[in-house]
Automatic annotation (TrEMBL):
It comes from Entomortierella chlamydospora. The chain crosses the membrane at residues 61-81. The keyword Membrane applies. It comes from the Eukaryota. This is SGNH hydrolase-type esterase domain-containing protein. Residues 158-358 form the SGNH hydrolase-type esterase domain. Residues 1-33 are annotated as: Disordered.
Length: 411
């Protein structure tokens, strides 16, 4: 028996050595001896707690559990940070997420020097006083104008106004509102999807409400940014011919500038804005994602851009040529300020993202500085002085006085 036991021990030891010293139990069902690292442990058939630990012994269950736990932590951490990053990078476009899948890319950082901003040459105060004397009291200056504190800037736009207030895309409308804060209210009258035919039908009532209602702020500037939807293919519902488009722009402008118009407003200035370029491939992919076919092209949009410029020259109005300001960078025909890649200006090939909004916003501000410096925030002081200035609101030279205000002060 002793010899047999020793032989069994030798065989077991050899086997244990060849299997990386893993513990083993003898084949005799009555013997509950465990052999591990050349030692025999009698008892229950399990390795006792006081058995010496060596690197060659690894509990497979413990190892697999550790691997599974680490994998779980890594996976949860990855998706957590992915979700957080997605929320931070989201354009936050609200409930209208028709093209959300194609708007995840917000464009690279600005390249090169930033687009220059013109500094206006402000008119002298004497010029304002002389102009008011020449106007007299019968040319549109009413008591309501004298009572109004803040001015108003109207933005009449179509699809180019979509996401114009979205902070994640540096919306151009939000940037304009920041410029005139404390001076004028920037009011968006945006109609995404509207062509100039549809805007023309509602503009008289809209203009009357903005200019002729009682105790409203005087409209100092109207920015007309239309034509993006007019430039659709002829077989689409939004299409407007070039001649009709130009005639509609004349009608909208003449409703403000001509004395014969019932909504004539001599103190209101006008700026035209051309349609922006179109990224054909990007826009076609965005439409295909919602089972729609291509409805416009960049080459056709260029024809409406030229028509808008022609109307501006004809009526002697400043024109912000957004199409040229973006396209010339892609073509390499002008100094680069943003990017030479057309896709960097759009969220979906059609609606502007951060770089496109920067081009439009700065184009409008430069047009105001060049053509209407008296309306530029640099030359247009705030209605009431700031807290840290020496003067008080009661001493402000901009404070309007009228009977209504005086009566309210007595109550």
């Amino acid at each position: 028996q002793t010899t047999a036991l020793e032989g069994s021990t030798t065989a077991t030891t050899t086997t244990s050595t060849s299997t990386a010293s893993s513990p083993s139990v003898t084949s005799n069902s009555n013997d509950r001896t465990v052999y591990y690292n050349g030692q025999a442990y009698e008892g229950t058939g399990r390795l006792p707690r006081d058995a010496p630990f060596t690197p060659t012994y690894v509990n497979a269950y413990t190892f697999n559990s550790a691997v599974a736990f680490v994998s779980l932590i890594v996976t949860v951490s990855f998706f957590y940070f992915k979700i957080i990053a997605g929320i931070l990078e989201s354009p936050q476009i609200g409930p209208d997420r028709e093209f959300q899948s194609s708007m995840s890319y917000m464009g690279p950082s600005d390249q090169g020097e930033p687009r220059p901003m013109l500094t206006p040459l402000c008119p002298m105060p004497e010029q304002f006083q002389e102009t008011r004397k020449q106007r007299g009291s019968g040319d549109g200056a009413s008591d309501d104008d004298n009572c109004a504190l803040f001015g108003k800037i109207i933005i009449l736009a179509d699809s180019i106004s979509t996401y114009g207030y979205t902070h994640a895309t540096h919306g151009w409308l939000g940037s304009l509102s920041d410029e005139w804060v404390g001076r004028a209210d920037v009011a968006l009258r945006g109609f995404p999807g509207y062509n100039t035919h549809w805007v023309k039908s509602i503009f008289p009532d809209l203009l009357h409400q903005e200019t002729k209602s009682v105790n409203v702020a005087p409209v100092k500037l109207v920015i007309i940014a239309l034509g993006t939807d007019d430039a659709s293919f002829p077989n689409t519902r939004q299409y407007v011919s070039l001649d009709a488009y130009k005639e509609n722009l004349r009608f909208l402008t003449n409703s403000i500038r001509y004395p014969e118009s019932p909504n004539y407003s001599p103190d209101t200035q006008v700026i035209l804005v051309t349609p922006a370029p179109l990224h054909d491939t990007m826009w076609e992919a965005s439409l295909a994602a919602v089972n729609k076919t291509l409805d416009r092209s960049n080459s056709m949009t260029k024809e409406y851009v030229d028509a808008c410029v022609q109307v501006g020259e004809e009526l002697q109005l400043p024109v912000v040529n957004v199409w040229h300001d973006i396209q010339c960078q892609v073509d390499g025909t002008c100094q680069l300020h943003e990017s030479e890649r057309l896709e960097d200006y759009f969220m979906d090939g059609f609606h502007l993202q951060r770089m496109g909004n920067e081009v439009l916003y700065k184009g409008i501000m430069n047009a105001v500085a060049l053509h209407y410096p008296q309306l530029h925030p640099v030359c247009w002081p705030t209605v009431f002085p700031g807290y840290h200035t020496e003067s008080s609101p009661e001493q402000s030279i901009l404070k309007r006085h009228c009977n209504n205000h005086n009566n309210n002060n007595k109550i």
